[in-house]
Design goal:
Elements lengths: L11 E7 L8 E7 L17 H14 L2 E7 L1 H7 L1 H14 L7 E5 L10 E5 L7 H22 L7 H4 L5 H10 L21
Parallel strand pairs: 1-4, 4-5
Antiparallel strand pairs: 1-2, 2-3
Helix pairs in contact: 1-4, 2-3
């Protein structure tokens, strides 16, 4: 089972993002403050859960969290500032939007820019260690997936309902066939750069 907190005496917010490696769509971050006694048998890193589990957990987290917020940075802003800075900006926006101010931040991953004067700790694979980060990973993933399913209706040929904008071979082939959409990240390698051998 994951840990409920790092410091028992501080209000901690867990933060995580989704969609960093995608070719299209926004990067999405979430910040979550859970009750100190929070325990859950299923909650874990969102990548280890099924879509059905994530959907159920999303509702539970929203209902049980002391505070939560999800923030999006769109593809044009990602192109302007680079994906790392965009991911951290999304986390800052999520933290800023919390109804209760945290005293300490648990950040998934190994890179973060300080937010105001709130102390933080970056934790590699933190979404598999702390409930608050796992909760943030579930919210970031589910909210982003819903957004990608919505814009799939505008451009169904790219298969975003299934691939959520990630660089699958289907997605790359669609880019080669149809070109790019207003949702694609132009600063990313969108085309399959493998050399085609002509025999």
């Amino acid at each position: 089972m994951l840990k409920s907190f790092l410091y028992n005496n501080l209000i901690e917010a867990g933060c995580d993002e989704a969609g960093r490696g995608c070719l299209a769509g926004p990067v999405t971050a979430a910040a979550v403050i859970l009750p100190k006694n929070f325990k859950h048998e299923v909650l874990n890193d969102s990548k280890k859960l099924s879509a059905k589990q994530r959907a159920i957990l999303k509702d539970e987290i929203i209902n049980l969290a002391i505070a939560w917020k999800v923030a999006f940075i769109d593809n044009s802003e990602i192109d302007e500032m680079n994906i790392l800075r965009a991911s951290i900006k999304a986390m800052h926006l999520a933290i800023e939007g919390l109804e209760k101010e945290p005293q300490f931040l648990l950040i998934d991953g190994n890179r973060f820019y300080p937010y105001k004067s709130i102390k933080h700790k970056t934790i590699i694979k933190g979404d598999g260690l702390f409930f608050s980060i796992a909760a943030a990973s579930v919210l970031a993933k589910t909210f982003r997936d819903e957004y990608m399913e919505k814009i799939h209706e505008e451009f169904p040929e790219y298969g975003w309902k299934k691939n959520k904008g990630y660089p699958t071979s289907f997605h790359r082939e669609a880019i080669e066939k149809y070109g790019i959409t207003p949702y694609h990240r132009k600063s990313f390698s969108l085309f399959n750069t493998q050399l085609k051998l002509n025999f």
